[in-house]
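call fold(seq) -> tokens
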Amino acid sequence: MKVFLSWSGERSRKVAEALKYWIPDVIQEIDPWVSSQDIAKGGKGIEEITHELAATDFGIICVTPENEASRWINLEAGSLAKQFRIAHVAPFLIDMKIADLTGPLSKFQATVGESREDVRKLIGDMNRASSGRTVAEDRLQRAFTRSWPELEQALKEVRRAPLSDGGRNSIQRSEAEVLEEILLLVRKQDYRGADLEGKTNQEEEKLSRSRRISGNEFILASFAKIGWQVTNSSWDNAEVRITAQHPGNNEVPLSRDFIERIAKSLERPVVVISDSGNILIRSGVEFP
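ret:
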């Protein structure tokens, strides 16, 4: 079973790497993937991450107080949630309580990394989610009991590590760069797949459908970055209508720059409406 370990920031990376080497000691059938260790030198990072997200069976999101609002963390969480059930996506918390989670990450069933009982439950969830051979409970318990001290010590060292202000900023990219690069990559893969299909009409239909799917993922991830929840998005030849709300404060405005960037990326005008049907904002971008 493929497990995707999502991280952002130095402490989060160390947690992800510790889990990568520890989890197979408990369940040998699990193959954890973490970008800091598994992308070869000279590899196309963004393309490999997209590929691994598509192939994964379970996602663990390593969350610390300094990275909870990271665009990478929320983007990958949204991508994982779109692929399979929310039950297969688990924030792994360091120096945080479950009640501390806000925004999109709060909808997932989180694991407190310092809690032996919580981590044991996570291991059990992964074991049951495996599409292959599961480990018998008695064997799983023995393996967990034997291996837990190693992970516990690794997490203690992470918690003692000093925070680096420069470390966080050095891995950050603008929301526009990250989301638009992934959107363009997905679309390029869609076009390549359509070119190989052969029949023109089927190609166009498949491309139109897959492009809308990737566009909807882009919408969901983009709004999640600013704390908004998208409940629906509908497309026609004229525009994209997005139904969205801010769960914490209905008075929080959407910026003009944000909406214009969304419209430019989707290549058509965008209208954002509330759940009651009121227009919240409309892009001014015109397309032929």
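Residues 38-45, 166-175, 184-211 have pLDDT under 50 and may be disordered.
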